[in-house]
Write a structure and sequence with these properties.
It holds the Pfam family ABC_tran. Helix 3 (98-107) crosses helix 5 (122-141), helix 3 (98-107) packs parallel to helix 6 (157-170) and helix 5 packs across helix 6. The protein contains 10 helices and 10 strands. The protein is of the alpha/beta class. It is 39% helix and 23% strand. The relative contact order is 0.17. The longest helix has 20 residues, at 122-141. It starts with 6 loop residues before the first strand and ends in an 11-residue tail after the last helix. Strands 6-7-8-3-9-10 form a 6-stranded mixed beta sheet, with helices on both faces. It is globular and about 50 Å long. A hairpin with a 2-residue loop joins strand 4 (60-65) and strand 5 (68-69). The structure holds adenosine-5'-triphosphate. Residues 16, 19, 21, 39, 41-47, 88 line the site of adenosine-5'-triphosphate.
């Protein structure tokens, strides 16, 4: 069995002018792990995702994915390597149907060539059919198949969040980055999301890095949690260790990190 981590972030940092948004950040994710990334507002969590997905190139450090150095690669190449993400502010094709939103993501994996697509050779049609069937399978997992013809913008908020995850998964990632997937959800929706995240991790053999302010969710699904404060890693450990960690308690204004933050 390989002991190499799927993702290895080594002493990564980035400056925006005089601000060191992330500094000396190190994290290893092994295949199949579900790790939480938490921290107060402005701690640098989304910047870490932007560094991992090629939105920003790190000004220091290295990022290895599957043993390959990926820092500096453009976002589309990072996606092709097997890293997908969702965004804090939902980004869907609002005017397209739910099904088309997933089909577009699945397209990046489709086996039929661009020429057969343009000239509509038979191979293209079988590719289209397969893509549609696969996309509907994804929608079933996310309980969205009954609204597949609906425009994305017409879905209730909780369903839009689920569609974003379905779309990220349709690109066939090995590593899924979820940026505050429970933001704006009610407690029941959050509970269902928690179950869904655990389910897809097992079902798709995924490795997941989860940014989330809802501590109940983070503590409930993650094996390990990394805590950022002012761009620095201040703690890494099990939910129980993090809950009691003095630096984490201090970063969260003296309160014990727990359900009061849910
Ligand atoms: N493109 C940018 N240019 C300048 N400053 C930036 C840029 N992106 C992020 N920052 C700054 O970097 C710091 C970290 O921001 P980031 O969005 O990563 O924090 P966060 O932990 O995700 O916060 P939140 O929980 O509020 O989403 C903040 O001070 C932010 O203003």
């Amino acid at each position: 069995m390989s002991t190499n981590p799927l993702l290895h972030i080594q002493n990564v940092g980035i400056r925006f002018g005089g601000l060191r948004a992330v500094a000396n950040f190190t994290l290893k994710l092994n295949q199949g792990e579900l790790i939480g990334l938490i921290g107060p507002n402005g701690a640098g969590k989304t910047t870490v995702f932007n560094l991992l997905t090629g939105v920003y190139a790190p000004t220091e450090g290295e990022i290895f994915f599957n043993g390959e150095r990926i820092n500096g690669l453009p976002p589309y190449k990072v996606t092709r390597k097997g890293i997908s993400r969702t965004f804090q502010n939902i980004r869907l094709f609002n005017e397209l149907s739910v099904l088309d939103n997933v089909k577009i993501a699945y397209h990046s994996l489709a086996k039929h060539s661009i020429f057969s697509s343009i000239f509509r050779f038979p191979k293209h049609f079988s590719g289209e059919k397969e893509m549609e069937e696969k996309s509907i399978e994804f929608l079933k997992i996310f309980h969205l198949d009954h609204v597949k013809e609906e425009k994305a913008k017409n879905l209730p908020y909780g369903q839009q969040r689920r569609l974003e995850i379905a779309r990220a998964l349709a690109a066939g990632p090995k590593l899924l980055l979820l940026d505050e997937p429970a933001a704006g959800m009610n407690p029941q929706e959050t509970k269902e999301l928690m179950e869904l995240i655990s389910f897809i991790r097992n079902e798709f053999n995924l490795t997941i890095l989860l940014i989330e302010h809802d501590m109940k969710l983070v503590m409930g699904v993650c094996e390990k949690i990394s805590v950022l404060d002012h761009g620095q890693l201040i703690a890494h450990g099990t939910p129980e260790e993090i809950r009691k960690h003095p630096k984490v308690i201090e970063a969260y204004l003296g309160e014990e990190v727990g359900e009061e933050h849910a």
